[in-house]
Design a protein that fits this description.
The structure is a single chain. The chain is α/β, with parallel strands linked by helices. It contains 14 helices and twelve strands. Helix 2 (about 15-25) packs parallel to helix 8 (about 160-180), helix 2 packs antiparallel against helix 10 and helix 10 packs parallel to helix 14. The longest helix is centred in the middle third of the chain and has 21 residues, at about 160-180. It binds fructose -6-phosphate. Fructose -6-phosphate binds next to helix 4 and helix 12.
């Protein structure tokens, strides 16, 4: 049942290409105009999708990190402002919500108490709620106006892996559906973005081939006290997710930072031998992102940190500054997180195993957090 693995989580990491492909299945329907995005249970009319003037994304933990990525895609494609909030903070600060607000609630289990309460609060304020959920018929989709199911099958490992990648794909579907309804993207552009998403599972499979290299690095680092993660733009939520995985599985102190914040504090932590994992943006994306991160790596390497760099294949500019270089296939900037997250999951699982921990059942954690 664990597909030849000792742990469900390792099997679930390998299932990610299928999880993303299945989540996309049926969401693009060919019609007389070439094709269009369709959501699962579309109880949000196109008219409503056109009239939303802001989007809130609410979630917890890894699901929240997937929500941070939704912001980049939705704002870029639709020009609608998006705020991403921890569900546990959302309703306590009296957020400004009304009929023209779309609240996207992301939850693998669909039962997380904080996210459910955020949904209830949003509905009381007359906002419309779209759930992204991995569990059919769970409470959050039941109380929402519409739902997109991530179709990964049950996720058994407590640490979210395949559900996270599938959530990212589902979030991007929301962005494309909004862009389509609002006309901020032409139908052929929407079709092209969807095709890009559809090409990701094949690339995720290729990232899985880095596992032996990533495991070797993880075993070397298993006994360090701290690991830092750095990213910029969409690489920032990836850094947060990498740090969360390491905390929850390997019980290590791990922090994810926006690379630009380095100089505002975290650089004080850098010392000889400290492992820093850096998520490099694609060199074919915005040049400024790439060059800024490059200079961050240079700075921390000069201070003696051990730099473990996740970069696009063929990005030779990083080589001189990378003590370890993990190469992932080229992908447009917005889609890179579907690739760059994968080595971080493998890394955390391997450190945990090297330390003798049960990666499916980390201490003190429950798969579904039904109390606030
Ligand atoms: C991390 C993890 C948790 C969940 C969080 C939200 O690996 O699994 O952080 O992401 O508890 O759970 P759901 O998505 O079920 O609402």
């Amino acid at each position: 049942e664990k597909g030849g693995h000792d742990y469900f989580m390792l099997k679930e990491i390998e299932e990610q290409p299928t999880a993303v492909a299945d989540t996309l299945l049926g969401h693009f329907v060919i019609d007389e105009k070439g094709g269009r995005i369709v959501l699962d249970e579309q109880r949000l009319a196109d008219q409503e999708l056109r009239e939303f003037d802001k989007v809130f994304v609410v979630a917890c933990g890894s699901s929240y990190h997937s929500g941070l990525l939704a912001k980049y895609a939705i704002e870029h494609w639709t020009r609608v402002p998006v705020e991403v909030e921890l569900a546990s903070e959302f309703r306590y600060r009296d957020p400004v919500l009304d009929r023209s607000t779309l609240v996207v609630a992301i939850s693998q289990s669909g039962e997380t108490a904080d996210t459910l309460e955020a949904v209830r609060h949003a509905k009381e304020q007359k906002a419309r709620v779209l759930a992204i959920c991995n569990t059919n018929g769970a409470q959050i989709p039941r109380e929402s106006d519409a739902v997109i199911y991530t179709r990964t099958g049950p996720e058994i490992g407590v640490a979210s892996t395949k559900a996270f990648l599938a959530q990212v794909a589902a979030n991007y579907l929301v962005g494309l559906a909004l862009a389509q309804a609002r006309g901020t993207k032409y139908p052929d552009e929407v079709a092209r973005e969807f095709a890009e998403l559809e090409s990701m599972p094949k690339l995720i499979s290729r990232v899985l081939e880095t596992a032996p290299q990533v495991r070797a690095i993880a075993r070397e680092l298993a006994h360090v006290p701290t690991v830092l993660f750095l990213g910029r733009h969409v690489g920032y939520p990836v850094a947060l997710e990498g740090a969360l995985k390491l905390k929850e599985l390997a019980y290590l102190h791990a922090e994810g930072f926006a690379a630009g914040e380095l100089k505002h504090g975290p650089i004080a932590l850098i010392e000889q031998g400290l492992p820093v994992i850096i998520v490099m943006p694609s060199p074919k994306g915005r040049a400024v992102l790439h060059s800024k991160l490059l200079s961050n790596i240079r700075e921390i390497q000069a201070r003696g940190a051990r730099t473990i760099v996740i970069a696009e294949e063929g990005d030779d500019t990083v080589r001189p500054f990378a003590d370890d270089l993990i190469e992932i296939p080229a992908a447009p900037t917005l889609y890179q997180p579907l690739l760059s997250t994968v080595p971080l999951q493998i890394f955390a699982a391997e450190v945990a195993q090297a330390l003798g921990y049960d990666v499916d059942k980390p201490r003190n954690l429950a798969k579904s957090v039904t109390v606030e």
